[in-house]
Amino acid sequence: MTATTHVHGQTTAIPGLVVFTVSKVGDDRGWFQEKFHRAKLIEAGLPRDFSVVQTSVAFNKERSTRGFHAEPWNKYVSLVDGRAFGAYLDLREGSTFGTSVTVELDDETAVFVPAGVANSYQCLTDLHYLYSVDQHWSPDAYESASFVNLADPTAAVR
Fold first, then answer.
1. Which of 5, 108, 125, 150 has the most Cβ atoms closer than 10 angstroms to its Cβ?
2. Distance of alpha carbon 119 from alpha carbon 114, whole angstroms
3. CA distances from 26 to 2, 23, 63 (A)
4. Do 82 and 110 contact (CB within 8 A), yes or no?
5. Residues involved in catalysis
6. Backbone angles phi, psi at 61, to 5 degrees
């Protein structure tokens, strides 16, 4: 099995929100993937100043939904396995306030979510959700997070 994987980035209607395709290689023994290869991601559109200080993983059951939340830090999210419907909503002041982007996430999709952009996801299967952030979580920092009700019709997420 060769260890060469590829990364491609795509900009979105939300400034700074980048969707990446992160390939994996495999053979009859299994597969290999570079979930976070800084140089390749920067070349594909990851901000150079994104410096990971914490990586966490969450296991989620099929059909569970995580509501919109926008923390005061940047994050890079991907799935280890499974599929999810991801939704992103720009809560930052400016001309793109209220803009939404949706993405079907799988194990070869990753998203860079800039601070102030809310993210949410609904699990289409059981999955492991991996996220790396550039600030440590703390109760004080989390107090400045923003939340949006998933049922808010002004969000217009489709």
1. 5
2. 10
3. 8, 10, 29
4. no
5. 69, 131
6. -85, 150
